[in-house]
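To whoever is on call:

I kicked off a structure prediction for a single chain this morning and the downstream step that reads the tokens threw a length-mismatch warning. I double-checked the sequence; it's 190 residues and nothing unusual in it as far as I can see. Pasting both halves so you can look.
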Amino acid sequence: MVNSTPPPDLTQLLLAWNNGDRAALDRLMPLVYDELRRLARRYMRQEGFEHSLQATALVNDVYIRLVDQKRVNWQNRAHFFGAAAQMIRRLLVDRARARHRLKRGGNALRVTLHDDLNAAVPVQLDVVALDDALSKLARLDPQQERIVELRFFTGLSIEETAEALSISPATVKRDWATGRAWLYREMTSK
């Protein structure tokens, strides 16, 4: 028999949780955890990382930090996953730096920075260098840095990114293209 009950809306559950509804949190957490795990698996599989970090461990760390947020007034799904993007970035950078210290320059965590994941020749970047470049971009254009972070680290769509930042999809498209071009130039000029 097919389940005809539509899946609960994450935004509505987040808003209910904000308003103190403990049952909403209980319904929200399995949905959010599953979506975070799906994103992490896809991200790790697409990148073909050669490291000991497992997608489940990454999701567990992000999940614990997100659920522990006491003073956040979640606005919607995009806002929640935008916060997840920042946490994923911090965790990946911290782990890459720790590995780098342990191996004294050993194999850095490698990621790809391109829109088309089926591109013939992906540009490989290490996550520490990417973080450094994103920090530079933030000083030049904080909005572009945030868009790259949201799109790259959580895979938010153009529309979800626009919603999370309260800007138009056209602005997201323009800043996404400009930010990626700036990062590419910054990362390949060394």
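Update from on-call: the warning came from a stale cache, not from the record. Cleared it. Sanity check on the structure: Residues 104-111, 116-124 have pLDDT under 50 and may be disordered.
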